[in-house]
Amino acid sequence: MDKTILESAALLMRPLETGDIDEIPSLVEAPEIAANTFVPRPYTAEDAVEFVQRARERWQYDEAYVFAIIDKDLGRFVGCMGLHPALEHDRAEVGYWVGKPYWGRGVATGALRLLIRFGFDVLNLNRIEAGHFDHNPASGRVMLKANMRCEGLRRQYILHRDQYKDVIWHAILREDFNAEGKDSKDQTNEKTAED
């Protein structure tokens, strides 16, 4: 398994480990997580085992790079964020969740900035994109704070829990990232109320 570590003053991100399995179910039990992701509800210990095993296998085959997010101040696992590449097009899509007790600490923004740097510097991507349901503007603010640009609304783009939902898409290109000085490495964990 790859030992890639991404780090800022406040966060450490590393590939998921089997030791993370026990932490995940309690972090994703909030209804707000299920409302905005494809995380199963209810979420069982077996779901966590399958999620971690699949993430580790997909990393091994360069199919996805899912990181555990560790809050260094607390010394705790607080969520996950991953890049799901389409390497033939030099692009990847971001997916993430952060446990509700850790919202408002800048975790999602800081993690997304680290992941964007990884995507451009290590994977040599040209484009990194992410979408959020239109009823979840806080996720959009995270993307904007990580210097992604809003590209628009895709109507009824995803069937989520038996409902078609609109998705708002954001992206950052390599040229944007390079022009912004690689996202000012000293700002990788702004604490705001939105994330």
Word description of this protein:
This protein is α+β, with helices and mostly antiparallel strands. The protein has one domain: Aminopeptidase (3-Layer(aba) Sandwich), CATH 3.40.630. Helix content is 29%, strand content 32%. It contains 6 helices and 8 strands, in the order ββαααβββαβαββα. It has an 8-stranded mixed β-sheet, with helices on both faces. The chain is globular.
Task: Spell out the blueprint of helices and strands.
Elements: E1 6-7, E2 11-15, H1 24-27, H2 31-36, H3 45-60, E3 65-71, E4 76-86, E5 91-98, H4 107-121, E6 127-133, H5 137-145, E7 149-160, E8 163-173, H6 174-179
Parallel strand pairs: 5-6
Antiparallel strand pairs: 1-2, 2-3, 3-4, 4-5, 6-8, 7-8
